Amino acid sequence: MSTRYFRLEEEVLAGNWYLGTPLDAHGEELEDMREFSSGEPVHARSGMMIPISESGRRRDFNMAGAGRTPVVHIKVATLFAELAPDDVQLIPVDIKGCPDEYQILVATRRIRCIDDQASEEILRWKPEDERPDKFGMYRGVYGMRIDKSKVGDAKVFRTWGWTVALIVSEDIKNAMERARVTGAEFEEV
Question: What would the mean pLDDT of 21-40 be, rounded to a whole number?
Answer without folding.
Answer: 86
